[in-house]
Amino acid sequence: MSFSIQGRTAIVTGAANGVGLAVARHFIDRGANVMLADIDEARLVDEIGEMDDDGGTARYFAGDLREKLTVANLVSATIDAFDRIDILVNASRQMEVSDPLDPDDGAVENLLRQNMLNALRLSQTVARRMIRQAEEDDRDDGPRGSIINLSSIAAQRTQADLMAWSISSAALDQATRSLAVALAPHRIRVNAVAFGSVMSASLKGAIRDQSDLRDEIIGNTPLQRIASAAEVAQTVQYLAADASGFTTGQILTVDGGRTLLDVCEASAH
């Protein structure tokens, strides 16, 4: 059973900051070739400049993945740089407070597009490339690719002002399952990591602004702490590696036990 991703090529979206950046760094440190994709080109340039060349190779692609042409260009740029795509990590996520009683609130449509439809479109495009690669390699056995979506425990929680975030997370989970079934005959695996509160820059800022938030999160987490982004990245590596070769259509929860508690209004970051 191998957890190695050395020499494999991955696209990681949302890679300019947060968990997406942590996944990209983790993959590069373990010898993978990674195309970091994000809309924030300045941050991508800064992060690429700080990455160690002793592991894998890092390249970046800046663009708005809500545009179909941008999706096609990202895949083409990755093929030009590395010749193939073995792993896709859809880590681009957006959270937005919404009013569940306002019919003019566009948060649901916005987050469905940002958090689910963008990931679905890129997954479909990358999957077609993975299928062509397998045909060109003339391989009859072994894995052909792994797609990992970063989701949230918000799909299982109820918090009124995060309705749009919860709906988009649940939709992404179901898209994960549906794609897993569709791509299983091609031996392309599709899974998701649903995580709770992770000590990212955005959460650090929220904790600074809300003095009781840290204690609230820890109090609602059986393991009594907040996860690091590296812990999510390690789970993503497992799903990308051959060690999880018989795992598909699963939503792996990394939340310190938080979803085991019956807390309706717990913050679902």
From TrEMBL:
Keywords: Oxidoreductase. It comes from the Bacteria. The keyword rRNA-binding does not apply. One of its GO terms (molecular function) is oxidoreductase activity. Belongs to the short-chain dehydrogenases/reductases (SDR) family. This is SDR family oxidoreductase. It comes from Palleronia sediminis.
